[in-house]
Amino acid sequence: MSADNEVSKPFLYFVMIGMLVSGTANTLVQKYQDEEQAAGNIFTHPYFQTAIMFMGELSIFGAYGVKKVIRNRTASKTAEQGGQPDLLMSPGTTAAVEQKLLTNCNPLLLAIPATCDFCGSTLMFIALTMVDASVY
User: Fold this and answer.
1) DSSP state at residue 109
2) Which of 15, 73, 74, 93 has a Cα at 20 to 30 A from 131?
3) 2-16 tens-digit pLDDT
4) What is the rounded CA–CA span in Å between residue 78 and residue 83?
5) Which of 65, 84, 61, 64 is CA-nearest to residue 74?
6) Does 96 reside within a domain?
7) Cα 77 to Cα 9, 55, 69, distances in angstroms
8) pLDDT in tens, 121-136
9) How many Cα atoms are found within 13 Å in the side-chain-facing hemisphere of 69?
10) Residue 53 domain-assigned?
């Protein structure tokens, strides 16, 4: 990695601590939800919990759409001025383009890992209804 792409240690530790705290909070909130009672019934709906989690992940498409619109506007303005558009790409995509590697694939191929993620998350939420959060 070049010096421009390196991440500072305080930022790295901040991200690591943030992931630890948010992951712990997620488990505790899900377990708290599993133990709620209404009209004598315990909430045990791991499929609903999984659906809510995936709805949150799906909301990221909004941020992706905004990024894509901004990128396209910047590229069109640069092209109108006669310059080469400088697109915002990840370092991996930039390296792949420079090496002339395939950078687009069939989006339906993402259905395979998405299905595995959905099944795995649902099984984990089912397990959370049966064991303590510390074991989970």
Assistant:
1) G
2) 15
3) 455 677 899 999 999
4) 5
5) 84
6) yes
7) 37, 34, 12
8) 899 989 988 888 888 8
9) 6
10) yes
